Amino acid sequence: MKTALAHAWWVVRSNPVTAAAVGGLSLLAAIALAAPWIMPFDPYATNVAIALQRPSAAHWFGTDQLGRDVLSRIIAATRLDLAIAASAVAISFAVGALIGAVCGYIGGRLDRAVGRAVDVLMAFPLFVLAMAMVAALGNSVENIVIATAVINLPFYIRFARAEVNVRRDAGWVEAARAGGETQIAIITKLLLPNIMPAMVVQISLNLGWAIINAAGLSFLGLGVKSPTPEWGIMVAEGARFITSGQWWLAAFPGLILMLTVLFFNLVGDGLRDILDPRTRT
Amino acid sequence: MRAAHLLRLIFWRLVSSIPALIGVVVITFILMRVLPGDPAVFFSSGPTAGQEEIENLRRQMGLDKPMYVQLGIYLKDVASGNLGRSILTGQAVTKDIAQRLPASLELTLTALLIAIVVSIPLGILAALRSGTWIDHLVRFLCTLGVCMPTFVSGLVLIFIFYFVLGWAPDPTGRIDIFAAQPPNITGFLLIDFALTGNWSGWWAAFSQIILPACTMALFVLAPLARMTRASMLAVLRSEFIRTARSIGMSEWRITIVYALRNALIPVITIAGIVFSTMLGANVLVEKVFSWPGVASYTLDALVASDYAPVQGFVLLMATIFVMVNLIVDILYGLMDPRMSIG
């Protein structure tokens, strides 16, 4: 553990891009946690007298068509968007890793059946599946989380299955079997921790994708509804004003959305370098 | 002998993909029935519609039967090529989709073409200069592209090229509604205009498609360029390249003729996957640019609880997905004799 940390520190120090991305993510997390205390204005307070004002000293990111402060709404949305992505990825990781690991270890009929089910899921246009699920389950934050988790699931199942499958006949697993460990113990105590580092890279890259998906759903009017501050909705509402030149409505939430995804991807790339410098692309 | 062998393999691959397709149909069917809102109420004459009128509509639409009977009827219809009728447009779903599919395909193929033309040279360049600032720049550009949600990059392009520079036309569809439509030959406006020699029409259609196509291309640049770079690097390190160098072949000939040809094989797989995902993820780009494609048609139907178009669209996408995978595998087999496509 200590050497891993030292190695991580070495990678961060020698790779300024990864260091910047880690810093950016920490800042976003801090903003999300401190949101209620650092918002300059109430994100819901409308004031038509100051509608559609350009960015200024009072309103750094300008005001929207109802006179709400764009900066305050972005800060409030940070918490919601990060929470949606984190819980969706946590669910698909927990469920996917377990199913994949069991299938990869036991194999046989169960493995084939799950493999077929994953094939069916992958044959769907995934974003459309998420759209249909949110439409079917109803517009709410929980349902966006569920839909995003489901469309991420097949990747985790396949990944965990493949990783466990190459390890199932390794010497140390053989030794544990000979030593009388139960199958559940071998999977949960040995195999899952062993594939964890590889999965962490996947998680980091996946968080970015989950945020894009969740924001895309709200952009289409599925899921989180206006006036809730959320990046996708803010971009969708701002889109109507782009062709008349009020760029700041959509530009700032779009920029933050992009930066967040960028940070997650860069951290994922950095983590991959830590794990295996050879696979660097 | 080899041709017969190939045909038999293709046949078995098609047969073995049928269960997955049936799975897709059944899941979509069930998902659609869970949708809140009764389509019969939605499409009756209005809030004043009597209970009797709604009941009549339900009977007409077959909604009064138990779900497994409805599913059976639907599966039988699908098998005979009938995807049902859209209540929203009043037309057969197959007809609706046939009208809108060319728009989506034209957009996706143009985007894929742009992405390939840009990303393969970028990938080759990054591989030849690996470890230098060029490599890092390409890597950073790709990461940036994949981080831009299409609905954000689309809006940025509209703002720059429509509002600031005034170069692009209104971002409202495939072609100006007042402009003359070309005769419907292939359904692809760019090809139809070119075939009839109507170059001003071609330019109008081209200026409409270029922004949405670039938006989509930007998003898929990364996987293509990264794959080209990685596979180019692997090939350049191999022994036959060393041999070619040692016998004094020109660097250009080694790179383009020998290395690239081998390096492109895995890129084809990625291009196939990228194509199927693009076709499904179209909906955001189509919405931003008011593109009259199948994806935005499906979104409208989904919001209105109109079952048939959504089911038809998902089945179509799944079929295309299976077909593209098959084509990729066949190309693989043709390009690399070591691969078997079974």
List the helices and strands and how they pair.
The complex is a heterodimer of chains A (281) and B (342).
Chain A (H helix, E strand, L loop, with lengths): L1 H13 L1 H23 L31 H37 L1 H16 L2 H12 L3 H27 L3 H8 L4 H37 L11 H12 L5 H28 L6
Helix pairs in contact in A: 1-2, 1-10, 2-3, 2-10, 3-4, 3-6, 3-8, 4-6, 5-6, 6-8, 8-9, 8-10, 9-10
Chain B lengths: L1 H33 L4 H5 L7 H11 L5 H13 L13 H36 L4 H15 L2 H15 L24 H7 L3 H38 L2 H8 L4 H38 L5 H10 L3 H29 L7
Helix pairs in contact in B: 1-13, 5-6, 5-9, 5-11, 5-13, 6-9, 7-9, 7-11, 8-9, 9-11, 11-12, 11-13, 12-13
Number of strands of chain A: 0
> Biggest sheet of chain B: strands, sense, closure?
none
Mean pLDDT value of chain A: 85
Q: Major sheet of chain A, described briefly?
A: none
What is the approximate shape of chain B?
A: globular
Low-confidence stretches of chain B: none
In N-to-C order, the SSE pattern of chain B is HHHHHHHHHHHHH
User: What is the SS-derived class of chain A?
Assistant: mainly alpha
Question: Count of helices of chain B?
Answer: 13
The best one-word shape of chain A is elongated
Structure description:
By secondary structure, chain A is an all-alpha fold. Chain A contains 10 helices and no strands. In chain A, helix 9 (231-242) crosses helix 10. Chain A is elongated, with a radius of gyration of 22 Å. Chain B has 342 residues and is mainly α. Chain B has helices at residues 2-34, 39-43, 51-61, 67-79, 93-128, 133-147, 150-164, 189-195, 199-236, 239-246, 251-288, 294-303, 307-335. In chain B, helix 5 (93-128) crosses helix 9 (199-236), helix 8 crosses helix 9 and helix 9 crosses helix 11 (251-288). Chain B is globular and about 85 Å long. The mean pLDDT of chain B is 81. Chains A and B meet through helix 4, helix 5, helix 8, helix 9 and helix 10 of A and helix 1, helix 6, helix 7, helix 9 and helix 11 of B.
